[in-house]
Amino acid sequence: MTAWRTAWTAAVILPVAFLAVFFLYPTGTMLWRGIWDGGFDLEGMVEVMTSRRTWLVTGQTLVQAALGTIGAILVGVPGAYILYRCSFPFQKAARALATIPFVLPTVVVGVAFRSLLGRGGTLEFLGLDQTIIAVILALVFFNYAVVVRTVGSMWQSLDPQAVQAARTLGASPRRAFLTVTLPQLAPAIASSGAIVFLFCSTSYGLVRTLGSPGYGTLETEIWRQSTSLLDNRTAAILSLLQIVIVIATLLVSERLSSRVGRLNLRNHHTTPLTKGDVIPAGITALTILTLIAAPLLSLIARSFRVGDGWGLENYRLLRTSGTGFAGGATVVEAIGNSLRIGLIATVLSLIIGIPLALVLSRSVRGPAAAGQSVLAGAILLPLGVSAVTVGFGFSIALDSPPLDLRNSPLLVPIAQAVVALPLVVRSLTPTLSAIAPGRREAAATLGASPWRVLATIDGPFLLRGLGVAVGFAYATSLGEFGATSFLARPDNQTLPVMIVRLLGRPGESNYGMAMAGAVVLALLAASIMAAAEAARKDTR
Fold it and tell me: What's the CATH code of the domain at 212?
């Protein structure tokens, strides 16, 4: 039993130490050096917080997030009804297509809209390239699935008798929806809206690929101040401001999510499409065909466009680093770097995440329960801080003793593992929590050792969730851009960094290579998630 207690103690200490060293220390060091190093400069801090540029980028961040959230809800709620509450042929295919955007890296989404709205694109005549409207459309594209899946899952669980009773009493379909259905859906809509707002306010990759040179958000301004202007103090103050905004959003999301959970809905109800569903069906079809399918098809088509003709030249050029660049990795080498770094980051996140998920899934009481809640909240901290801030903290804190990882090949994988770790834990914990405590107690009563209980009771459930956890971790690491943009060296660049680098240089060949690289990145991410989903079904 001593070895067993030691193992559980290590399962707690290991993730806590990992977060302390590779999250709290870099973030804290960044804030210390930027704000307090050399003395607390209240006047300088006030100057940054009250400057016109700070108000501008903060306002643009909040407006961008608000408009993206409103847009996702307006088109997502009708989609939730059609795709989850109604039944029709090819419904599963429509759901899968609606979900595709969320599994794509943000850089791919940005490049897809550039291919549609930018030079040579089908909708170039609209003049939306590198405008805030393009950014908002991409945010709605990316977050559509969040609203559809969150609201749709609840909608198909609502008891239809309440609506039927309202209709029997003379209420019109519109009145029945507004007075009966909408109040029941409000927690799910609000919860998904909070999550979408979080994603929209930390959309660094989308803004870098779609925004105009003069357009900026808090994340792009942090990058600009720290890399272009070398003003770490201003960057640190802006990071602190963003942390406050994001954590406030996370707290709202958690509160609203708990309200959804307390409804305890179980039964699934669906009805065939009727003539009365023509408006939500039309909105959903138009959204899927124009907002989702059109950018993806445009990206694929544009990757084969060479001058006035078609061909594979853009893909052949991936063996080079592009025109106008002196040295550095080729795109093919960047693909290899992404696969290798993503694999290392995935392994690291699993080594830390699996023991932690086992600890968090145990049913405990008393002081241990309070400690478990604190640990569960601590592991979500990386979600409350932008990947840009994480990368900035790494670049500040881990380039000198006692942790000099400046030239270490593990620097980027560790940063990506920090970003992926909460997703791994959140993927595994619900699966392990589904184990009835009585099963473990019964096995122990029959003489099974703690290790045997872990292997025979927890093991099969762990395998069920492991495929999805690996998929999320690997796909997230593969498409990670925020932290990696600070840390990747010219000879060790990843594919997302290389794509943005190509877009930032003039030249038709660079533009075409960015399109081809984005297609490759999308295929890699989609293949990983498909393999993870297949692995999950095989373990059922």
Answer: 1.10.3720.10
Q: Which H or E run includes 477?
A: helix 459-479
Q: What is the pTM of this model?
A: 0.81
Q: Is 399 helix (H, G, I), strand (E, B) or coil?
A: strand
* Cα–Cα distance for residue pair 193/187, rounded to 1 Å: 10
Q: Are residues 256 and 360 in the same domain?
A: no
**Residue 76 and residue 163 in one domain:** yes
Domain that holds residue 23: 1-34+319-540
β partners of residue 399: 404
Q: Distance between CA 345 and CA 431 in Å, rounded?
A: 22
Q: Are residues 61 and 23 in the same domain?
A: no
Distances (CA, A) of 494 to 60, 107, 398, 471, 483: 28, 12, 20, 18, 11
Q: Which residues contact 77 (CB under 8 A, 6 or more apart)?
A: 147, 151, 185, 189
Cα(292)–Cα(98) distance, integer angstroms: 7
Does residue 314 form part of some domain?
no
The model's pLDDT over 364-385, given as tens digits with 9 standing for 90+, comes to 666 666 776 777 777 777 776 7
- CA–chain centroid gap for 64, Å, is 17
